[in-house]
Amino acid sequence: MITRTSFAELDARERVRLLLDPGTFRELIDPFERVRSPYLAEQNVVAQSDDGVVVGRGTIGGTSAVIVATDGRYLGGSIGEIGGAKIAGALECAADACARGVLTRAAIVFDTGGIRLQEANLGILAIAEICDAIVALRAYTPVVAVIAGRIGVYGGMGIAASLCSAAIMTEGARWGLNGPDVVEEEAGLAELDARDRPLVWRATGGRRRHAQGQAETLVLDDVDAIRIALHALAAREPHAHRIAPELSIDPGLDLPAFDRALRERYG
Amino acid sequence: MSRGEVWFDALRAGALPLANLPPSVRAADGTIGVHPARLVAVVPDAQNRFARARSGELGIDEGLAIARAVDEAPGAVLAIVDVPGQAFGLREEMIGIHRALAAALDAYARKRRAGHTVLALVVGRAISGAFLAHGLQASWIGALNDPGIEVHVMSEPSVARVTRMTREEITRIAQIVPATARDIERFASLGAIDELFAIADPNDPSAQELARVRAALAAALDDPAVAARTPRSRLDAPAAVVTRALSREVRARLRASWDG
To answer: Which ipTM was obtained for this model?
Structure first.
């Protein structure tokens, strides 16, 4: 009998545990270390003991590995100082290990709306460091983005995901820069009605990103499918990276035709 | 003229702008001290074919043009930062604006990692994804010490919508949590700004003021320690040792437990 386990329904810790080789998951700075954000209480937000980020060490296909995951259930998976430092620091350690000759495979499980507004500029500085760490690490080993959660990935982390060597997506996940609420607030209801969920998914969902070549692999929302895809991509040779080759044809993009097609498809 | 354009023109000192870029991205191969450096700025373009990128925002074309200008730069690069944000639009999201901004960020990071110093000078607004993609990958960041400078991750109305806070609450929080403030001094308190410049009129800097800024940029280009920095080096700034102590502690804990 074939059974499926939904990845989207798992919490961040289970996601990391199940993507590593069985029995190898070891969490760094686990919730019992209680490294919590000191900025939230005064903003009437409850701090969480892991700050919404899980860093897991273990192996992928028997090789040393690190997988980090944002917890989309906590403050939209947002990146504050501590969670941001956990992601950047873990990737920095992995790059240092690779530089010492210890191959360390790497993946980031994105489920985040981007910067945590309650920590604003601390978040943006952390994401700048995460981005640089991805660029450094992917020269040694592929850094694989897994975008398969309920939120998907937006904001600065949408940029960070683009820097990864390859991305795995599910149909239910979304990948963009500006979340629908922010587009509506900044550009108006005529630009985008954030409540129009079918439109939001058609515009930024996994099916579209895969068709565009932005997501390398489109998989079912199933733990085994995602793990198999991840282990295959993470074990590849690192390759010279070029961001957004699919957009390089852009000068020829016929925008009026693009907008007509938008109207025809989406009304 | 936008502030970005004012400072681009002042610092390029007659060097010809590159021709193969969209009107919203200006680049020129100038000289700073004894060093050749490519200056890159984003400026408003009322005719921009992307309607949501007409006020100096970073959009699809801007991200890709910056990436090209930085990739093809012969040596050091100076990002002149006056960006009100990224372009907000359905069309942008459908095409994949996250990829275009990543292309710019990636070009700066690779240029720096290839051994070329990347400088940034914040002369106006430095907002969100636009600042991430154009400025924050620099080895050294200078800024004008001016009320017209705004550094933040989102416009205030959007912050209010997303956090469901009133503007009064947002202002009150900024007093308690400096990271949520928008002014350059409190951003500098996080250790990310290497030098602040007092300029009487940022829209019309005097020759003396320009000379001071140029001298600081030249000193940064002369300094091999600056060339060796990455964004993570900001954690070692004296201000960051205090204000980003947690960022440092998290890294120390990760290093200590990495190999079990």
So the answer is: 0.97
